[in-house]
Design brief:
Layout: E1 10-14, H1 19-34, E2 38-43, H2 48-53, E3 57-60, H3 66-76, H4 81-86, H5 88-105, E4 111-115, H6 119-129, E5 133-137, H7 166-194, H8 208-212, E6 216-218, E7 235-237, H9 252-259, E8 266-269, H10 278-291, E9 296-299, E10 313-316, H11 322-325, E11 331-334, H12 338-347, E12 351-353, H13 359-369, H14 384-395, H15 398-411, H16 416-430, E13 449-451, E14 473-481, E15 491-496, E16 507-512, H17 521-530, E17 539-546, E18 565-566, E19 570-574, E20 580-589, E21 593-598
Parallel strand pairs: 1-2, 1-4, 2-3, 4-5, 5-6, 6-7, 8-9, 8-11, 9-10, 11-12, 13-19
Antiparallel strand pairs: 14-20, 15-19, 16-21, 17-18, 17-20
């Protein structure tokens, strides 16, 4: 058996943000070119020359400047009340510009890869073009109870060493809801313009609901943060997306500065972060390096003019490749961006983080939890003496150096771009990722129709069902008693022609018989529409499926299900947040059939 050679793909990469947000997509585009595919990147015009120099196609986004938006988020705080109140006018202009991209790019590509920040438009473009879509994340955001969302408010972030909890899941869900709800009016208008079905509600058929279930690629190291066990199988942690090494000629002054001195200097740089007292912060960190007896290399393109009086500090107004500079440093002090954290890990360079925004705090907590660095410092209240003490302790921490060496060696064989390209090729050919495990959040029971609900092991549940043969219908009502707010997905996770070979809870069989031939005309019409069967195989058609409700009057909101299942099939359904109430599952069949309905328990 030989795996078929993947056909050439035309891939559109949608991204928005600062240099650290765009660079991984350029790296992925270069990897796609190296394997014979065609890749275009759509982003802000200031990155156009960089993209075209790498040999990629460039599609310009003409909207709000990402640096302005980034600075605004840092000043106001993401999802703060002032941010949500004042961002509406800016967000409308931002969405209008991306709507133009969707109109112009419709039908021109085979695969869409979209950054999470613009995933609404990536999913919509893919739906309008009839092609698969994949959402790319540089930070570990995705519904899980094992760690907090990097974008969640502080009161929804649990400790990095805390056990899995519902607060983590709530933070992920809140962020995804706010991102999607903000764009919902614009999405509705754009769907109508493109001739797509309307969205009646926030989570109904398409739109953000489709985004929640789209395949995802996470471009960070699985050695640094592996995928949690409650993520679906089509959410893949590939490894960092790195550009191939490029030749770099440093300034003569930098080379001579690195060559002098008894010890390597300290790197100081805050990337694209710009705060009101940026110059004061840099001078505080430089003074702390002096108090600790360390020289410093300060990369500050936004600071003009650069000071030149101190001979123990080398100031730079231009960017320096991290992969060239950081291996020559004894320590790095930075903001905590994902790209800088990755470069320090690859260089096995200790790091001190002064986080500003979103995922900066998450990566700082992760480094501390793994023993790879000290606790993060506040960029607003930490004085030079305190920073100097942390510098001295970090440079002399032998256990952290050993942990950094082990992490660097574990990350060395990873090739995130190559892994991502393989998955995109499979997505293009098979319209999905290859499964390596059964893609559900709880071990599914074997059997025909299986209803899986993730419950805490300590929660008791009651399971009962009944069967009715009237009018070709088999009705199964499942009463589940559980504590409020338990975790679930609200989607059909997978259909298969083979039962999953996994441990399961006991299941109960319900047997239904076909109706007699002398039914009324209504049932005869139903038989004609439902009798597209395989030889000697039962045929099931989902009539309705209602999630549980907390009141006696069940709100009937159908869960999206396959229109029909032919032959012996096994389906996993996850019903959503269980409070107290009834789950109603209604099926119709055209022949003798055995239906097994199982309930599986697992930790959140």
């Amino acid at each position: 058996y030989h795996e078929p050679y993947p056909p050439t793909m035309r891939v559109l990469l949608l991204t928005y943000g600062t240099r650290g947000d765009v660079q991984p997509f350029i790296a992925l585009g270069v990897a796609l070119l190296a394997t014979g595919h065609q890749a275009d990147i759509c982003t802000s015009p200031q990155y156009g020359d960089w993209i075209t120099t790498a040999g990629l196609g460039f599609r310009k986004y003409c909207g709000e400047d990402p640096q302005t938006m980034f600075d605004y988020c840092i000043r106001k705080g993401l999802f703060s009340l002032s941010f949500m109140r004042e961002v509406s006018s800016v967000a409308h202009r931002w969405m209008d510009a991306w709507a133009v991209v969707v109109r112009e790019a419709k039908g021109q590509y085979d695969v869409i890869v979209s950054a999470f920040t613009v995933a609404n438009f990536g999913v919509l473009l893919a739906e309008a073009s009839g092609v698969p879509v994949c959402v790319a994340h540089g930070a570990p955001h995705g519904e899980t109870s094992h760690f907090p969302s990097p974008y969640a408010p502080g009161w929804l972030r649990s400790s990095p060493t805390a056990s899995p909890n519902r607060r983590n899941y709530l933070g992920h869900h809140l962020v995804e809801y706010l991102f999607g709800r903000l764009a919902l009016p614009k999405m509705a208008l754009l769907r109508a313009e493109l001739g797509l079905p309307s969205i009646r509600g926030f989570h109904r058929g398409g739109g953000w609901h489709a985004l929640l279930h789209a395949p995802r690629l996470y471009c960070y190291s699985p050695s640094f943060l592996p995928a949690p066990p409650d993520w679906p199988d089509d959410w893949r942690v590939t490894g960092y997306w790195q550009l191939p090494p490029q030749p770099y000629t440093p300034p003569e002054g930098l080379e001579s500065f690195l060559a002098t001195g008894p010890e390597p200097p300290v790197y100081v740089g805050f990337g694209s972060v710009r705060v009101r007292d940026h110059a004061m912060l840099l001078h505080t960190v430089v003074r702390a390096c002096g108090l600790a007896g360390q020289r410093a290399v300060v990369v500050a393109p936004s600071l003009q003019p650069l000071p030149t009086s101190d001979q123990s500090v080398y100031w730079m107004a231009e960017e320096v490749p991290h992969d060239w500079l950081l291996p020559q440093m004894s320590l790095a002090i930075h903001h905590g961006g994902g790209g800088t954290v990755a470069a320090c890990l690859r260089a096995q360079c200790p790091q001190i983080l002064l986080p500003f925004f979103a995922d900066h705090y998450f990566w700082a907590d992760r480094l501390q939890a793994l023993g790879l660095g000290p606790p993060p410092l506040s960029h607003t209240s930490t004085c030079a003496k305190a920073i100097a003490a942390v510098i001295t302790a970090t440079i002399g921490d032998e256990s952290a150096l050993v942990a950094l060496q082990a992490m660097g060696q574990a990350m060395q064989p990873e090739n995130g771009c190559a892994e991502a390209v393989k998955l995109l090729e499979h997505l293009h050919m098979a319209k999905g990722f290859p499964y390596t495990k059964f893609p559900c959040r709880a071990p599914p029971p074997t059997g025909g129709w299986s209803v899986v609900k993730a419950l805490n092991r300590s929660v008791d549940f009651v399971f009962k069902q009944f069967m009715d043969r009237l009018n070709y219908q088999i009705r199964a009502a499942i009463c589940v008693v559980a504590s409020t707010g338990r975790r679930a997905v609200n989607r059909v996770i997978r259909t298969s022609s083979k039962p999953p070979q996994l441990p399961c809870a006991p299941s109960v069989e319900l047997r239904g018989l076909p109706a007699e031939e002398n039914r009324d005309r209504r049932n005869a019409a139903l038989r004609r529409t439902a009798a597209i069967t395989l030889p000697a195989a039962a045929y099931f058609h989902v009539v309705s499926c209602f999630p549980p409700s907390g009141s006696d009057n069940c709100i009937r909101r159908p869960v999206p299900l396959p229109a029909a299942i032919r032959g012996p099939s096994y389906v996993i359904i996850d019903f959503g947040h269980v409070t107290r109430g009834r789950v109603h599952l209604e099926l119709r069949c055209t022949g003798p059939a055995t239906i097994r309905i199982g309930l599986c328990e697992a930790l959140d």
